[in-house]
Amino acid sequence: MKKTYLAILAIVTVVLAAFPAFGPEVYYISFMFSVFMYVVLASSWNFIGGYGGYLSFGHAAFFGIGAFATAKVAAVFKLTPLLTILAAIPAGGVAVLVALIIGYPCLKIRGPYFAVVTLCFAFVVDLLVKNIEFLGGADGIWLKFMDIPEKMSRTIMYEVMLLLMIITLCVSWFFGRSRFGAGLTAIRADEEVAETMAIPAAKLKIQAFILSAFFPGVAGGLFAYYLTYIHADVVFNVNISILIVLMAMFGGGGTWLGPIIGAVVLTGVNEGLSTFAQAEIARIIYGALFIVVTIFMPNGIIDFFRKKGSSP
Amino acid sequence: MDAVLVIQSLISGIMIGMVYALLSVGFSLTWGVMHVIHISHAAFGLLGAFLAYSLLQYFGLDPVASAAVSVPLLFIVACGIYQLLIRPITRAKEVIVASMILTFGLAIILENVMVLVWKADPRVLTPAYASGALILGPFYFQYPHLVGFGLSIVGITALYLFLKKTYTGMAVRAAWQQPEAARLYGVNLYRISMITFALAVSTAGAGGISMALLNSFEPHSHNLWLIYLFLVVIVGGVGNVLGTALAGLIIGVITGLSMAFLPFQWVNLVTFGLLMVFLVFRPYGLFKQGV
């Protein structure tokens, strides 16, 4: 059973990696790029939000910090394409640093209060970046993209994002099966009881928070380079924060597969709707989707099918 | 510092603060009593504002009079929404999360319906007295602001008296404090939840009208309003009506003063920074006592 599962995953990975070789249009490569990106975002949000039960509504902040850190470094030092892509990694480190500073006081508060404080945090970062010229300012930052045909450059970014997604999902896989993940699940169930059972709640929470900030930071850096122009309104958009939460919870928080399903389905639906319907109608259908899913699958898609499978 | 300017911005802060309070008080109740975080609360407020706009435009109905139409209308609509959408999710493992996702969807629907019906242009309510102002010595109060302020005071007082004096209101408070005990004493929790939800949505409608008398609005405004809702409710303490009113005033005064003395783009930064500090140090609000 486990072997077939791994085999399927290996095949999917190979197919995804080889996908650009089949000569699809650039549109599909771009679409897959954003799917991978949202899988990274939702899966890393899942560390603290899904397992730990601390719903961060400000994850776009880490995404944006990574984006601006990469863009700033690339613009100041006039980095080559390869170095710019690599600069996304220390940019993830910057996101981690911010997560550390913000996590200490904020992870002490629970439930909806944590959700609101992280939401505010994202707004504060957004406003700071917009108002302080050194950090990016109101004009945003332009980046020089690779000097090669569009399809080639998009394919390179596609493969890089795919790699980041695979790394994130591997970490997520081991995370879910580790004592670390189990400890966080216990914290979500009941933090007091978890602490009585000698689970170092404060330490685990901050570690999970840092981990969940790192990958979005790196993804933000890659995204900035991919767009070649970065503006605070794009990367700090509150809708991205909310979308990340919705993707993870929609699929099923606290599971490995849930955020992946959520990210793939919602990105696909979003794209499909905006292609085939008038913008407002598309948004209305999109909104209705959340309502229908919450009513019929209040605990996420994964939970719904698990119950279907177990009960005769 | 210019004393006149300080007092003027203090008074406009109090006015806008009272409006924030009316807009937030229902949000606080649904959160406190039902453990539902109603993300589309501000969108319903905006709906009230747009209804007032159309009634004024086509029938010449005064915004305050249009509250008499839209508040009962929203009450009925909210009862339906409770039965259809909110009640089913009270069975979820995590009601707060489920309610946030569901009402987020509802907010998207409302927002886009408003875009379809009213277009995405900024609007202002311009009743007959819109250009008039009350001038008291060096101070200056626009009539629409005074009317919005008055409507908010009436709204909050009415809700407070309802909760304190009527049997249903007491049942709502009981359900907030001790749901199990309330049920043992024969309170129908579902019915109380429905009434709470419908009351909250209709006060949001009235709050939206007041807000529209003070500021311009467009279909996306509810996102910013929602941030203020969270701010006011958390400073005031969840489920606490008087706390919400006081918190509204405090936040109104702070934004009023910072608008007078800070560059415009720093005002929101002050607001959000303040909320963060508040959440970290006093997440239960300024006051500990209940409804």
What can you see in these coordinates?
The complex is a heterodimer of chains A (312) and B (291). Chain A has a domain at 31-237. With 312 residues, chain A is mainly α. In chain A, helix 3 runs parallel beside helix 5. The longest helix of chain A has 28 residues, at 150-177. The mean pLDDT of chain A is 87. Chain A is globular. Chain A has a two-stranded antiparallel ribbon with strand order 1-2. Chain A has helices at 2-18, 26-51, 59-77, 81-106, 111-131, 150-177, 179-189, 191-196, 201-227, 232-235, 238-251, 257-276, 279-296, 301-310; strands at 141-142, 229-230. Chain B has 291 residues and is mainly α. Chain B has a single domain, classed as Orthogonal Bundle (ABC transporter involved in vitamin B12 uptake, BtuC), CATH 1.10.3470. Chain B is 76% helix and 3% strand. Chain B has 11 helices and 2 strands, in the order ααααββααααααα. Chain B has helices at 3-34, 41-59, 63-89, 95-118, 143-165, 167-177, 179-184, 189-214, 222-236, 241-261, 264-281; strands at 133-136, 139-142. A two-stranded antiparallel ribbon of chain B has the order 1-2. The longest helix of chain B has 32 residues, at 3-34. Chain B is globular. The termini of chain B are far apart. The A-B interface holds A 55, 105-106, 108-109, 111-113, 115-117, 119-121, 123-124, 127-128, 130-131, 238, 242, 246, 249-250, 253, 280-281, 283-284, 286-291, 293-295, 298-299 and B 31, 37, 85, 88-89, 91-94, 96-98, 100-102, 104-109, 111-113, 115-116, 223, 227, 230, 234, 265-266, 268-269, 272-273, 275-276, 279-280, 283.
